[in-house]
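For homework, think about our next protein:
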Amino acid sequence: MKIINRNPLAANHRIGKLMLGLAGVLSISLLATSAQAEIREHTFKVAIAVGPGAAHYDGGAKFCELLDKKSGGKMKAKMYGSGVLGKDTAVVSSMQGGVIDMGIMNANLLTGLVKDFGVLDFPFAFANEKIAYTVLDGAWGKKLSDKLLDKNIVGLGYWEMGYLNYHTSTRPIKKLEDIAGLKIRVTETPLQIDFQNALGANAVPIPYVELYTALEQRTVDGGNQTFINLEVAKLFEVQKYVTVTNHMYNPQMLLMSKKIHDKLNDDEKKVLNEVAREARDYQRQLSQQYGAKALELLKSKLTVNVLPPEEIAKMKEKSKPIIEKYSKQYGEQTAKEMYAEIEKASKAK
């Protein structure tokens, strides 16, 4: 007869050895995962064309502060303002090459990389900031931002510079016809040029960092800026009039070199994304506060008037051929989807 050993002590011993072995494997695995997910030391350069006092610069400073705090002091970022690292177009090229880590700039300057970004410049597209936030922070905005990845740029969120309004030195703009013949500074984008020309102005592309000098020397009669930029850049020193038109909403973007971004591990990317979202919301609040404060200051320095609704309607009518033309150039599908999202956001309570 075969005798079966049913010694419970021996069985428990074998199970104990097995559990110890599994615990050892699990411990090694957890250590490896922990090592891979460790937040390492990084220092990022953040380029921007403006200096302290502008909402997107101060929002960038908040981003740097939050990144340091939420990474336990491991991930740091430093602002380089007033265009010291070069013009925005040069900064984009440097980010693509991994020379500059990050940048904050006008979203329309990305049109040269991804033509679809041009639709953000369409006149009178966003009736108010709430609609803009809903569209840009939603699926449509992400889809647009993701188009930068093939160009070695990562979009970390849409920030805000506010609405563009006219400023002039020669005469106030009280009706559409007053724009005729004025030399108006614009950003270096075709739509901005064509839009001002369609209104009767002579559009002159000039980098922002050169704007004050151009106004001072009367190279141009005026331009269109946010109230904040008019205050921070002290453009009121070389201008006489401001006309409120809110003809273009001006989104900014926090951008990062994909070459630098790809070197981050998952935990580092998680911290970066959390900080970017928090800084975005903070920056938008600053934009609202700074804009209201700047307008009050401008009223004490310049003559400020609001263009009547009937004149705004004329501007909108003049802008229709521009929107039609550039929808074809920048992407009819992208433009169609944007306006569909704008309509949806406009109806939402």
